[in-house]
Write a structure and sequence with these properties.
The complex is a heterodimer of chains A (640) and B (447). Chain A is an all-alpha fold and 640 residues long. Helix content of chain A is 74%, strand content 0%. Chain A folds into four domains: 11-151, no CATH class; 199-377, Monooxygenase, CATH 1.20.1280.170; 406-530, no CATH class; 532-625, Monooxygenase (Up-down Bundle). The termini of chain A are far apart. Chain B has helices at 2-20, 24-43, 65-76, 109-131, 144-186, 193-216, 223-230, 238-244, 269-278, 292-312, 334-354, 361-378, 386-442. In chain B, helix 2 (24-43) runs parallel beside helix 11 (334-354), helix 3 (65-76) packs across helix 4 (109-131) and helix 5 (144-186) runs antiparallel to helix 13. The relative contact order of chain B is 0.14. Classes of the chains: A mainly alpha (640), B mainly alpha (447). At the A-B interface, helix 6, helix 10, helix 11, helix 13 and helix 16 of A face helix 5, helix 6, helix 8 and helix 13 of B.
Chain lengths: 640, 447
């Protein structure tokens, strides 16, 4: 490299001298008189000139000298080029020898071009020869450049890639398909909280090759072959970026293709996209930019225009996929994917400005912003639409056994997953709130803020659950049995409370909400007990009637009522074990509490066992069979 | 984007007007105006040298000028300045004192920029006619209930064409830089063998790349061709590159490189155009008086624009590209469209025989000059006689001119294609919104 500089410096000073001399001659021609100072300086110059005999030598000698130099350099160049091996492979030193010879030719060509006598046949011929050699050498240098680049490309399998490669397995297209129910939990395992990649920079090319590449660049630029250099350089890195994307499993897809994809394949593609975008925007482009700046930094805007040229195709492949996903119908399950994409991009937003700084890049940057904006809007829309989606889930037949509906599970799991995206969603929703407040006066704004001291996300989540409750309420009306209706509501609200209490959701809903809803499902529990048992147990009360027949009748009625309850309510279901147990305990306490005095009255009146079918313990045991979801009957026991 | 804002205000104005005057006749008038504007705009693109231009789109009555006068501003932002600079490519309505600028040569870059402007204008007006102030329930009744989904489907297909064209323009820029090398080399004086060979090398790569692109249209397993189209001195420079493919030691040449494709590997621009136009049927009978007509007109314009882009710019897999789109001749507004179509169709037929990379005027010229310069290079002998120098200088000047046109026009054209892309996406979303509203109206949401 040093030689490059020194040679260039020599050539430069020569040119400066020539330019200065021209200037003097011109100035002398223009002025008619000379003052003393000028005379003195010109005399000095004359003395200097007469000393430098070599320069004044006749042209023929000079041309001959040039010819010799050219021949020498040519021999050197040809000896390199005749070998089939790449010069880079000959080892260090050799390559610089070659470059030096080429630079010599370049310099000679330049001098020949600038020689005032370049009209003579000999000089013309020499110049032609020099340019010819130079052309061959430049073509060779292009090949060498590509060869050096491919020999010194650094593998990108650093720890980051290795770490994630184990996740690729779980990314395979075979991964489980989410279905309507609790499948969203599968989504949460998508490893989005994987190693966070802060933007960092790696060497795409081994540092030892950089000086040589730089030297080739300088030489080719000095020889006016800058376009050829850039072409080779760009096409090499374009290909490298292509290869890298292919290694990341990125596929070029048409929008039509993306729209036709089933949900499973699309999620897979989206995960690939997120990963690829993290890599490309996260470190690859920055590394590439640094490399380009190292090699081409001295040549003004060339570096950045080459860099944009190189990255454009691959970047637009990523951008287009993003746009294609946005065209897909905005179904609720897409929300997570869109948020993933949004978060992936927004994380690198500050870096995009650096990556696509120049004018040519700003278009790319705008496209990224546009995509990010649309991803955010689309995600927000889906989220805000979710309530309507829940509301529109209607049915005409009651849900069997009064258990937790699919909708409840779906909604709760859905919003539980959203918590992971809480910050993002909050900021998206806040944006909207700010937009809306535009229409309000300052006073109103502060009022809104005061009313809304909880986050917009919390607000939206609460509205989703209240829509769900309303929906459940409507559904509960489908039950003919009043008690079952309460069991149904109790089950579902209890499920909601459970999910919220035991997850991050509790921060969004707050203790107040939880307390209120615990009270609600307790209320339903109480209602159930009242409706099912009050009338039955009231018959057991001591109403003062003493007649045996009366007691026998009461006994028979109770038995029938109990058997009926047993028959229907064993088929009902309380999925939560604790809740089930609690209700059974409290029910059996109540029943036994009422039955005990009744049984003793029966005993007093010597009513035969034929009428007393159940002991206290029996009742307790039978109550334990309730809410299992498997219908049983007590008829078999009748004859006992 | 500023375009949205402009357009928004423009659409607002229309909607306000509509709300104020609920006159059913206005609707009819709008439809007629729309047809007229489409016809006028397309006529401006025809190369017919009429000495006295038809009475320049006279400002229609008070309520109507909005579409004509405000739409051209939508594209004014293509220039970085927002002031309407008089440029050869803009379709600013001709001012009173100066006559309209002569239309740019058919199929040239500036012609296409004008065409895309026309498209954007028509599209904005179409949307106004279709959506603004309409009763959205129409969208769910025949004939729109079927026509609108078709329209949206066509729009999506057009997006892929936009992407392919963007990629094609990128390839053109690559060719331009190759041609630029030749210009740089041959502008040197004296012309020496070295520079001639340098020019030849660049031009051969250029011509090979063009030919590969063309061959690609006829060859289904041509992924290498696309790759080759981009290569210059890749893993072995220029001339050597051709040999590299056959070198078993070179691992990279044979590797499949899907990303060199503009869209997807199996994607075909000809088939895409085919799919866009296949279900395009002009409305008949009573339908022809309603909204079905503008939907049809807009679709026809969309298909035409996409078709001409595909024909002009190197595009993936063009075998069997239709030479003519089925638009009935009797429709008045369709005359200029048919006229343009026939001209381009003829050119395309010629192309199919001759084999060029596309119909873009600059590109065809570039190919011609490149061929002749390569010929010159082949017969080159050192001291060049002066007559020959002159001759070459003329050609080099032409090439330099082509390069300049490309340099100035390709990036803006590419941006415009992107703008069309975003516009289509936005419009599609707007139409979907309307349909969505209809859906919500029929199922009231609880709480």
């Amino acid at each position: 490299m040093e030689y490059c500089e020194s040679e260039t410096a020599a050539a430069e000073s020569e040119q400066h001298l020539i330019a200065a001399a021209y200037h003097i001659v011109k100035a002398l021609g223009a002025s008619k008189t000379l003052n003393n100072d000028m005379k003195r300086i010109l005399t000095d110059l004359d003395v200097q000139l007469s000393k430098m005999t070599a320069v004044q030598e006749n042209e023929a000698d000079r041309t001959r000298e040039m010819e010799n130099k050219l021949k020498f350099a040519q021999r050197k160049i040809m000896s390199f080029q005749s070998r089939s091996l790449k010069i880079w492979d000959l080892g260090p030193g050799e390559d610089y020898g070659y470059l030096k010879a080429v630079d010599e030719v370049r310099r000679l060509a330049e001098i020949l071009q600038n020689m005032p006598s370049n009209q003579t046949r000999k000089v013309k011929q020499l110049l032609d020869e020099a340019e010819n050699i130079l052309h061959k050498a430049m073509a060779r240098l292009q090949e060498e450049l590509v060869h050096i680049l491919s020999k010194n490309m650094q593998p990108l399998e650093h720890e980051f890639v290795l770490l994630e490669s184990c996740q690729v397995a779980s990314l395979e297209e075979e991964s489980t398909v989410p279905n309507e129910d609790e499948s969203f939990e599968i989504l949460s395992q998508r490893g989005r909280r994987g190693p966070d990649c802060e933007q960092y920079v790696v060497d795409l090319v081994h540092p030892r090759a950089i000086p040589l590449i730089k030297c080739i660049a300088e030489l080719m630029f000095a020889s006016n072959y800058d376009k050829e250099f850039c072409q080779s350089f760009i096409s090499f890195w374009k290909q490298a970026l292509d290869d890298y994307l292919i290694n990341l499993h990125v596929k070029q897809l048409s929008i039509d293709d993306v729209l036709k994809m089933d949900w499973k394949r699309l999620t897979y593609r989206i995960r690939i996209w997120c990963r690829a975008t993290r890599r490309i925007v996260g470190f690859y482009l920055a590394s590439q930019k640094r490399l380009f700046d190292k090699i081409l930094g001295e040549f003004g805007s060339t570096s950045s225009s080459c860099y944009i040229e190189t990255s454009k195709a691959s970047v637009s492949c990523l951008l287009n996929f993003g746009q294609a996903v946005l065209i897909c119908p905005p179904r609720p399950e897409r929300l997570f994917c869109l948020l993933d994409m949004y978060e992936t991009l927004s994380k690198f937003l500050p870096d995009l400005g650096d990556l696509f700084a120049e004018e040519a890049g700003s278009l790319v940057e705008i496209e990224f912003h546009e995509l990010l904006k649309r991803l955010g809007n689309s995600a927000k829309e889906i989220f805000l639409e979710f309530g309507n989606h829940v509301a529109s889930n209607t049915s005409t037949i009651p849900f069997t056994s009064g258990s937790i509906t699919h909708l409840t599970r779906y909604v709760m799991n859905y919003i539980m997953l959203l918590v992971e995206y809480g910050d993002t969603l909050n900021s998206l929703l806040e944006e909207q709130n700010l937009e809306n407040t535009d229409q309000f006066s300052q006073a109103e704004v502060s009022q809104i803020i005061n009313l809304n001291n909880t986050s917009p996300m919390a607000h939206s989540l609460k509205s989703v659950t209240s829509v769900l409750e309303a929906n459940l309420d409507t559904k509960s009306d489908l039950y003919g049995d009043e008690s079952l209706k309460h069991i149904f509501m109790m089950n579902n609200i209890h499920y909601m409370v459970q999910k919220i209490e035991n997850s991050q959701l509790r921060w969004y809903f707050g203790d107040e909400w939880i307390r209120r809803h615990v009270w609600k499902f307790r209320q339903h529990e109480t209602c159930y007990e009242r409706i099912t048992w009050s009338s039955i147990l009231s018959q057991l009360k001591d109403d003062g009637s003493k007649g045996k027949a009366m007691l026998k009748d009461k006994c028979r009625k109770f038995n029938t009522a109990f058997e009926e309850v047993y028959k229907s309510q064993t088929a009902w279901k309380i999925p939560d074990a604790q809740l089930r147990e609690e209700l059974r305990i409290s029910t059996s306490q109540k029943v036994i509490h009422a039955y005990r005095p009744f049984a003793s009255r029966l005993a007093k009146c010597c009513i035969s066992d034929k009428y007393i079918k159940y002991t206290e313990d029996d009742l307790g045991n039978y109550i334990w069979d309730l809410f299992e979801g498997s219908p049983k009957s007590l008829n078999h026991a009748k004859r006992r | 984007m500023p375009a949205t804002d402009n357009q928004g205000s423009f659409l607002n104005r229309i909607s306000i007007r509509r709300n104020q005057v609920a006159d059913p006749n206005l609707e009819l008038e709008d439809l007629e105006l729309f047809q007229k504007h489409v016809a006028d705009r397309l006529s401006d693109l025809l190369p017919v040298p009429t000495p006295t231009p038809c009475p320049a789109p006279a400002p229609p009555p008070a309520h109507a000028p909005a579409p004509v006068s405000s739409t051209p501003k939508n594209h004014a932002n293509n220039n970085d300045t927002n002031t309407d600079q008089p440029s050869s490519t803009s379709v600013d309505s001709p001012s009173a004192d100066h006559g309209p600028p002569p239309p740019p040569p058919m199929l040239s870059i500036s012609w296409f920029r004008k065409l895309l402007d026309v498209f954007l204008c028509c599209e904005a007006e179409f949307k106004a006619v279709l959506i603004m102030g309409r009763d959205p329930s129409q969208f769910c009744k025949p004939p729109l209930d079927k026509l609108i989904p078709d329209l949206l489907d066509r729009a999506i297909k057009a997006l892929d064409v936009c992407n392919a064209v963007t990629h094609g323009i990128e390839l053109l820029r690559h060719w331009q830089s190759l041609a630029q090398i030749a210009v740089t080399a041959l502008e040197q004086r004296p012309i020496g063998e070295g520079q001639v060979r340098r020019a030849k090398r660049a031009l051969s790569t250029l011509l090979t790349s063009m030919a590969f692109d063309d061959k690609e249209s006829n060859n289904s397993s041509s992924h290498k061709a696309t790759e080759r189209a981009w290569s210059f001195g890749r893993r072995g420079g220029g001339g050597a590159a051709a040999n590299y493919g056959h070198n078993p030691k070179d691992k990279t040449a044979g590797t499949f490189r899907s990303l060199s494709w503009s869209v997807a590997k199996s994607w075909s621009s000809a088939k895409q155009i085919q799919a866009m136009s296949s279900n395009l049927v002009p409305p008949r009978g009573a339908e022809a008086a309603g909204l079905a007509l503008p939907v049809y007109i807009m679709s026809a314009v969309l298909v035409f624009v996409m078709w001409s882009l595909v024909a002009a710019v190197p595009c993936q897999e063009r075998t069997g590209l239709a030479t003519h789109l089925p638009v009935p001749r009797q429709l008045v507004w369709a005359q200029p469209l048919i006229g343009l179509q026939e001209k381009i169709g003829e050119e395309w037929k010629k192309k199919e025989k001759k084999g060029t990379a596309g119909l873009l005027e600059e590109m065809q010229r570039m190919e011609k000059v490149a061929l002749s310069l390569v010929e010159f290079a082949d017969s080159f002998q050192f001291p060049l006689e002066d007559a020959k120098v002159e001759e070459v200088a003329v050609q080099v000047a032409e090439m330099a001119d082509i390069c300049l046109k490309m340099e100035e026009g390709l990036v803006p054209l590419q941006q415009q294609v992107r703008e069309v892309f975003h516009r289509i996406v936005r419009s599609r979303a707007e139409v979907l919104d309307v349909i969505d509203q209809v859906g919500k109206m029929s199922t009231p949401v609880p709480c």
